[in-house]
Specification:
4-stranded mixed sheet; 4 strands; alpha/beta; globular
Amino acid sequence: MPPGTGDTQLTISQQVILDGVVIVSTPQDIALVDARKGTNMFKKVDVPILGMVQNMSLFVCPNCQHKTHIFGKDGVIKTSQEMGIDYLGDIPLDANICELSDLGKPIVVTKPDSFNSECYKEIAKKVMSKVGLKFD
């Protein structure tokens, strides 16, 4: 869910039966403030927190392969540890993810063997395991 007042998240948690939620945040402190608020709200309404995902965790230059932590490093990892929530993985900052998603062609479908797809699949496996599903 997008950051904000939490009204949307609260309404969904009251009107839909949820197996749990995944908290997604970028690693910078200001984003983690909203992630903490969302986590606490879901805890108050007894919705299980399945884990946290660190979005836009790392940018790898497509030309020189230099790695840069544009939004900070490991903020979600530290927050998940502090809050006692499982850390599910990282999603890198990559133009392909954005471009393909905007076209309605997720990277896990269009480039299933790519590094980015593997990141999503590893997170999906963890989430599926937590809700009792198997990954084929």
